[in-house]
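Dissemination and training. As part of the outreach component of the grant, students in the summer workshop were shown how a complex can be specified as a set of sequence lines and then modelled as a single object. The example used during the hands-on session is reproduced here so that future cohorts can follow it. Participants entered these lines:
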Amino acid sequence: MNLLSKKLGKSDWIGVLVLAAIILVLFPSVFSIFRLNLIGKYLTYAFVAVSLVLLWGNGGILSLGQGVFFGLGGYCMAMFLKLEASDPISTKIQSTPGIPDFMDWNQITQLPFFWKPFYSLTFASFAILLIPALFAFIIGVAMFKRRVGGVYFAIITQAVALILSVLIVGQQGLTGGINGITDLKTLHGWDIRTDSAKYILYYVNGGLLIGCVVFTRWVLSTKFGMLLLALREKEDRVRFSGYDVANFKTLAFCMSAVMCAIGGAMFTLQVGFMSPSFVGITPSIEMVIYTAVGGRLSVLGAVFGTLLVNFAKTFFSEEYPDLWLFLMGATFIGVVLLFPDGLAGVYERYGKPRLQKLIGRRSLKPEPSVGVAAFESGGKHG
Amino acid sequence: MASHEMLTIQGLGVSFDGFKAVDDLNFLVDRNELRVVIGPNGAGKTTLLDLICGKTKATSGTIVFKTLNLTEMKEHDIVRAGVGRKFQTPSIYENLTVAENLEVSFPRGRTAFGALFFQRTADVAERVKQVAEEVLLNDKLEQQAALLSHGQKQWLEIGMLLMQDPELLMLDEPVAGMTVNEREQTAELLNRICKNRSVIVIEHDMEFVRKIAHKVTVLHQGKVIAEGSMEKITADPRVIEVYLGH
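and obtained this result:
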C-alpha cells in the first residue's frame, strides 16, 4: 500500500495539503477553543501514531512502549514549566519556598540535582529531543544487537513502560507521583492558559505534526525506508547483503522516540499537566490501536485514525457514559475485522476511485496495472 | 600473493547439541573456479555455506577468504569483504519491485545514515539495468517481485548478489523448482558470471551439475568423501554407494 502511494509521487503532497487544511483551517474555523484544545490534545497522540507507522508498519518492529517516549518528552517540558511556576514568591506559603509544591508536601527541602538544569528552556528543549533519543538508543542497541525482535521486543518495551510508570508513581517527591506534574502556568512569562495561547499552541502543534508527517514520508522514500520494508520481509537477506540490521532498527527506533517526545511536550503545553497515566502500558497500547485503525502503513491514515478513535471516545463518553468503554471496544474489534488495513485501506479501496472520477483523470494519472496488483496483495501483509 | 586460493577451509567443525553437522572439513576453492558441492540430505552442504557466510559460528577450524579469517568476522563485514550468498528458498523482497530489489542491494549507502542520504545516481540506474539484463529480467524491472515466477525469483536473488560484485558467490540450490528451459538458461548464466570470481554451488540435479561444474566435492556426514572432476566423481564407488546409487 505504501509502495503504491510512493509511486503516485505528486498526489502524496495533495494528501499532506488536505491534512494541513483540515488541521490548520477547518478545525479552528468550526470548533470552539474548548473543542479545539481537545483536538490539539488528540493530535499530540498522532505524533505517536505516525512514529508507529515508521517503526511498526514499515519496519515491522512493534513497540508497546511508545508512551515512555511520549512521557519523557512531556515530563521534560513539565519540569521546566513547573520550575517557572514555583518561584519563591508564589510558593511562599510552603515550608521550603521556591521548590515545586509536590516536593514540599513530601518533606523534600532542596531541589534534586537532576531538576536544576530544567531552569533553562534551552536545556529543556534539548532534553525533550535528546533524552528520549538516548533512551531509545540504549534500548535499541541492547535489544537489536542481540537480535531480540518480534514479540520479545514488544514485551520488553511493554515492561519498560511499566517500570517507568511505576518508578514515577513510586518516587512521588521527585516526580509528583500518580498526580503527575500539575499547575503549570507560564512559558518564559507567557501564560499558556489563556485562549490566545491555546490557539497559538494549537497551530504550533499542528505545524510540528505536519512536519513529522512530511519527515516520515521522506524517510520512507529514501533507501533507508526501502530497507526498513525489506528487513520487515526478509531480515536475513538484508543482513547478508552487507547491512548491519541492528543499526537500521536502532535508528528507526530513535527517530520514532523523538517524534513521540515532541508530541509529549506539546501535550504538556496544551493540556497543562503531565502524569504517569500517559507513560504506562495502557496508553502505549492505545496508541498502537490508533495506528491500526488508521492503517499501519499510512502516515496520513495514522493521523486520521487517532482523530477518529478520540472523537469516538469523546462522543461515546459524553452520550453514553455507562456504555462508552464497551462501545469503544466494539469499534476496535469491528475495524480490525472489517478493515484490516484501517482507514487508509478503506480510502484506497472506496474513496480514491471515486475521488479520481470526481476530479477527472488529468490531475491523478491512472495507476499502472502493477500498482493495482500490489494493492490487492497489500492485504496480505497489511 | 603467494597462493591463488580464494577460499581455504581447514579442520572446520561445528556441532549442534553433540551432532557434528560438519566435521574436520578441509576445502579449497581457486580463483575463477566454479565448484559444485553435492551430497545426500543432511550431509552438511547448507551448513557449510552457513559457516562461510557467518550465519553459523564454527566450533573449530579456520575459514580463510583471500587473507581474511571469516570465522572472526560479523555477517555484514563478510559480505562487504566480497562474499555473497543465495539462500535455498528464493529470498527476495516480495513487496518491492525488481528494480528496487536490485537497487537495495547496491553496495553504497550501507550504513543507516548512509542509506538515509543515498542518492539514486546514474551509475546506480546503469548497474541495475546491466544486472537485470544479465539475469534475464530486464523487461520486468517495474514488476512487483512477488509476481515473478519461481525461477525468476531465483534469478532475481542471483542478480541481487551480482549487484555487489562479490569475489566469492555461493548459491544454494539455484535451480530448485525451475523448468527444464529455465535450468538451461541458469546454466548459461552461471557459466557467464563465474568469470573473474569464484562460485560455490550446492545442487542435486546431476544433469545440471554436469553442465556447470569445474570440479565437484561430495560431502557425506559432514566430511568430504570425494573431490575431483565430474567423471572421476561419478565413477567413485563410495560416491555411488552413498549418493548416486539410489
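Residues 92-165 of chain B form one domain. Students were then asked to discuss how this feature might be tested experimentally.
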